[in-house]
């Protein structure tokens, strides 16, 4: 997708603070961090969001969760962390390229606001 912010970040056309990259996934620091660790994990494939994903994407979506766990281990988030998809306007989704938020490094409230 040419007109997608996160595709441009993955391609390196918009700068980001890269945390992780392999052939399937890319992870970078959120520009407006909501916790000491706030990393976005995105599949390199342009998928709009989880509700637009198909069974063909199942492995890739699962893989992004494992990348999040790997980053959490590297950050030593042994007291816990949260992974979140914001889906649609009620959840405040603003970017329409599937991304998993990894939040940690502070006490996270439940239920989330
Ligand atoms: P969401 O509300 O789930 O769609 O999350 C989009 C996230 O992308 C927000 O947490 C933003 O702070 C973050 N974001 C927007 N633009 C950038 C950018 N250029 N670099 C890094 N993170 C960004
Ligand atoms: Zn995209």
Molecular structure report:
It contains two helices and five strands, in the order H-E-E-E-H-E-E. The chain is α+β, with helices and mostly antiparallel strands. The chain is globular, with a radius of gyration of 14 Å. Zinc ion (ZN) binds next to helix 1.
Instruction: Specify the helix fraction band.
Output: 10-25%
Assembly type:
single chain
Biggest beta sheet attributes? 5 strands, antiparallel
Number of beta-strand segments: 5
Q: What descriptors fit this protein?
A:
binds zinc ion; binds adenosine monophosphate; 2 helices; 113 residues; 21% helix; alpha+beta; 5-stranded antiparallel β-sheet
Q: What secondary-structure arrangement, pairings included, does this model have?
A:
Layout: H1 5-11, E1 18-21, E2 25-29, E3 37-43, H2 58-74, E4 81-84, E5 100-104
Antiparallel strand pairs: 1-2, 2-3, 3-5, 4-5
The protein binds adenosine monophosphate (AMP) and zinc ion.
Residues 1, 4, 6-7, 46, 97 line the site of zinc ion.
Short description:
The chain has 113 residues and is of the alpha+beta class. The chain is built from 2 helices and 5 strands. The protein has helices at residues 5-11, 58-74, and strands at 18-21, 25-29, 37-43, 81-84, 100-104.
